[in-house]
Design goal:
five-stranded antiparallel sheet, four-stranded parallel sheet, 6 helices, 227 residues, alpha+beta
């Protein structure tokens, strides 16, 4: 009986060891399958991104990606300390060639970076989350210009609960689109309740006021400007 019990115990131990090995192997495989390299678009839109323009200061001054720092390719090796410890570096230049060379220099110095090609290419992949640009105050509105062009202007407006966009008029046709929350739109002695995804055409030269109802309220006003 003792021999039989010992044999059973040995078999049980082997089964447990095999199960532990199988579970470990399964977890490893899941980790490998689940590990997904970030795409360029994901890197560009990550909050920890560092944009590095490796063009000349003159090129940089003529326009670049918002928030980018300028380290010309010729000065890169002398300014490596600016990039050490950065986890998400996106390089760019006029055509992507200098950015590729900068990527090689950083790699040799143990700094990881990706080639974002050009400023235009990066900008074509960028997105903006309104929640990052707006705050919900109870005393006044906060705004963010989605687009401010010659023919069209789009402004995102955030109101906290009870916050008032004081009486005003628009001198050009305007469309209001509710993105989030609920507002009271006061016009011509009446009240219109606007909720998520409601749209409203704001009359020209008619005084109106907007009041936030919920804790977080966002709407976008689009105006067609005169040519």
């Amino acid at each position: 009986m003792k021999t039989y019990s010992l044999a059973n115990k040995t078999i049980a131990n082997k089964i447990i060891l095999n199960m532990k090995y199988s579970i470990t192997l399964l977890l490893l495989l899941l980790a490998i399958v689940g590990a997904k390299a970030q795409t360029l678009a994901e890197r560009i839109n990550a909050k920890n991104v560092t944009f590095v323009d490796v063009r000349t200061p003159e090129e940089f001054a003529n326009g670049t990606v918002e928030g980018a720092i300028n380290i010309p390719l010729e000065q890169l090796e002398k300014q490596l300390n600016q990039l050490k410890g950065k986890e998400n570096i996106v390089l760019f230049c006029r055509r992507g060639i200098r950015a590729g060379k900068a990527q090689d220099i950083l790699k040799k110095n143990g700094i990881a970076a990706v080639n974002g090609k050009t400023a235009a290419h990066i900008q074509s992949l960028q997105k903006v989350n309104l929640a990052d640009e707006l705050t919900f105050r109870n005393d006044r509105q906060t705004t963010y210009f989605v687009k401010d062009g010659k023919s069209i202007r789009q402004v995102a407006v955030a109101l906290g609960e009870g916050a008032i966009l004081k009486k005003h008029t628009t001198d050009v046709p305007a469309t209001l689109i509710m993105v989030k929350g609920e507002v009271r739109f006061l016009i011509n002695g009446e009240e219109i309740i606007l909720k998520d995804l409601d749209t409203y055409q704001i009359p020209v030269e008619v005084e109106h006021e907007v009041i936030g109802v919920q804790k977080e309220n966002i709407f976008i006003i689009t105006k067609q400007l005169a040519d």
